[in-house]
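Record Mannitol-1-phosphate 5-dehydrogenase, 382 aa.
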Amino acid sequence: MLAVHFGAGNIGRGFIWSLLSQSGYEVVFVDINDEVVCLLKEKQEYRVIIADEHKQEQLIRNVSAVNSQTEREKVIDYITKAHLITTAVGPHILPAIATILAEGLQKRAEINQTPLHIIACENMIGGSEVLKSHVFAKISEADKPLFEKYYGFLNCAVDRIVPNQKNEDPLSVMVEPFYEWVIEKRNIIGDIPPIQGAYFVDDLKPYIERKLFTVNTGHAIASYLGYYKKLQTIQEAMNDGEIRSDVEKALQESGAVLVKKYGWNENEHQTYIQKIIQRFMNPSISDEVVRVARSPIRKLGANDRLIGPATQYYDLLGQVPLGLVKGIAALLLFDYENDDEAVALQKTIQETGVEGALYQYSQLEKDHPLVIAIKDQWQHLK
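=>
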């Protein structure tokens, strides 16, 4: 079996390709980084190191790669032969790969009319549907029925911490032991693609929100409270008893939302929360507070990791979630001068106040009980 994977970065090598290799696929990387592509061609193997006390290594063999800018025809040829296509390029790069993907799929439709699944493994909701929209924008109306018949774009949720790292071997990649790859069955054409370690579900939304409201919520709050206390790493923040307690409190609140909405087993979700907290405290992974905290305006979105669970908690349970409120207040104090969104956020607060910022970025009315509580906590922290 042949899998074509767009993106030879750490997530691609350390997570997606690792599982595909274990599933028996011959995997071809597609990337524009000529240095990485040449190294993969030369060595034809690399190491995945598990970030725990044992530092176990997995050797990935039978590696190949092509440069999508200088070897365009090879990429298209691989697409015509592939049994699976995956991506890990970042949400903003999906439009850039759509052109060559559309061209390859058009040629494939002429010579190889067998079902093919495309899975965008990006840190976003509905990534594969977004990629599909970009691909369909590149093809004619006449081609669309054929694409619908043979090409299934499967949405998924991926979760694995791959820390910033510099290794002596530029191809080696360190990853945390935990991983989760949940794939929605809805657009499968024919048989489910064989992927060892992936979990196929009928409805992806509960799993996306579980990850967003637990992993992303906890990570964000640890970063903003860590920044407030002038700590450097997430591990340092989580080793601070007060911050760890605040993170746990917020995750109990977001967890109550998930249990109420989706009927999660409460004890099982408590186990999941504790597993996530232990991930943040992994001594083998050092993630910078300012890296995790970046883009605070995006994280203030009405449906994002902080405001989303907070408003749903208030709507479902009729109370103000004080743990989440403290995390949001700490976000509003994030004034890191090297982050454009942080600078813009502070300017908005100066000009319109906390109420104005929450109205502009979170769609919260100025007299909403959450706004009142967040402002009180912000003033207390300030």
